[in-house]
Amino acid sequence: MRIAVISDIHGNLAALDAVLADIARRGADATVNLGDLLSGALRPAETADRLMALDMPTIRGNHERQILTFEPERMGYSDRHAAEAIDPRHREWLAGLPETLRLFDDVLLVHGTPGSDLTYFLETVERTGCRPAMEAEIAARAADADASLILCGHSHIPRSVRLKGGRQIVNPGSVGLQAFRDDHIYPHNMETGSPHARYAMIERTGEGWSVELLKVSYDWEGAAALAEANGQPEWARALRTGRV
Predict the structure, then answer these.
(1) Which end of the chain is more exposed for a tag (fewer CB within 10 A), N or C?
(2) For residue range 81-139, what is the model confidence (pLDDT) as tens digits?
(3) Is 221 helix (H, G, I), strand (E, B) or coil?
(4) What is the pTM of this model?
């Protein structure tokens, strides 16, 4: 069983198409999507159309929740741009997405952690910034989740951790945005340091889950130019460099 895992597309249709082409070339039994689908400075409606046609197992992220529940004046630019671009059929699709999802009984899909779409699973935010989480912190966030494989997104940082007892926690990284600045808990930067689109290919083996964290080239200059045209130079820098 080979599972391709994508997350955090953020309306970057060019990156999504490049990743999907790479998945098709490598072959997968299933492709799953961990949320934060449309919000950003790029192509939210076109990305929604692409994903709706694919009908892959998909959960909602914090940005879907915000698009559906926040008043426009509460939204940041990324959510407002998406909310203004999509139409009622896109909203209906988003509203039907679950917060978490089980796949093959022992695979759990979450956006942040099983209990929160805003908490990083594999990173910890402190006053000094963000660091890789320690195993005890990760285990506490996994709590009693009964799954041999837990797939998470939200932080945009590719990472895989196997806990004592065998549970594997995997973040595939972000398809569409390789750096961002956030102030949830404390101000911090999240950066991969390159503009490549990210995803993961995971395979069940006799020894457990084998994880490959992959990066894919695409036309990030075109994506950055679109962000600039939409008045978002910070997005353009992140798309070109993987840095904030």
Answers:
(1) N
(2) 999 999 999 999 999 999 999 998 899 999 999 999 999 999 999 999 999 999 999 99
(3) helix
(4) 0.97
